[in-house]
Amino acid sequence: MKKLQVFISSTYSDLLEERQACVETILQAGHIPAGMELFAAGSETQLDTIERWIDASDVYMLLLGGRYGSLDPKTKLAYTEVEYRYALEKKKPVFAVVMSDAFLDTKIAQVGRSVFEQDNVDKYKKFKKLVLSKIVKFFDSLDGIKLAIFQSMIEIDSRYNLEGWVRGSEVVDVKPLISQISALTQENADLKKEITNLRKDGVKQSKSKRTLKQFELQGNVHTVEHWRDMLTKVLGMFAEQKRIKDPDVLLNLNNNRATFFTFDESKVSRPHKIPLTKLYLGTHQSPDSFQRLTRLVVEAVGLPESSFRIIGEIPNPNGDSD
Fold first, then answer.
1. What's the DSSP call for residue 78?
2. Confidence class of residue 133 from pLDDT cuts 50, 70 and 90?
3. Given 1.20.1260.10, 3.30.230.20, 1.20.1380.10, 3.20.20.10, which CATH number is that of 208-315?
4. Where is the DUF4062 domain (predicted)?
């Protein structure tokens, strides 16, 4: 049987019984629960740990009660909201189980207003509005939570082709495949060596025709080998100057026809990691595209158009003359 790892996200002290009901139900359904209370302490930051476990999980579940929860010092958002937004960003199968107002009133009557948000009311309302904009299931009892989880897991299993976890005895023996891959790798290496030898006679001629590219930024002239190097160099300089603190500065340059910048390197061809950020640039583009995109980046970070210009191409001094 395929087992799915389900990451449970919620506030903690106000939802102890509800979280326990979630864990028990997921186990009864034959799946694997994961949540922050199950993690061992380590050297990673809390957000790093959260992201790593969400990445490793097949499904993300939000249990939302009446509290917003403790805030992440960096984003000033509750950890539950950070987790929820990260799961959406990673396109994980997400479902939310939300406490009904009637059940919340019952809990307030039983244990007091500690189960009701009092410090960050506006943030809680905005977060709940975001959650309710998606398909959710409400509960007004512990049994209601269990029913909502069973229904949601059935829906997710039918909509997504998730890998999950399987027993070791059910895993296909890959040793023959490994042997074939090894043989093909060696054959590929031999072919590459042969191609290199065949091209040696034409290296000097190739170098003589290669040109370097020059551009000016903020009064300084820079020389690169390729137009893509111009864009990556400009991005690196702006990252060091802390002009890309907000990732939307670059993400807003994407359009319906093309994705240039993304957090997920699998979304672009030939990804290049932009220094000091979590963003990647797709470098499989035409020279004209690199030039146009560089101009857009300069404008996006707030510099005047006059601060950047493309000088052109110059002969490569390392190339041999014909």
1. B
2. very high
3. 1.20.1380.10
4. 5-87
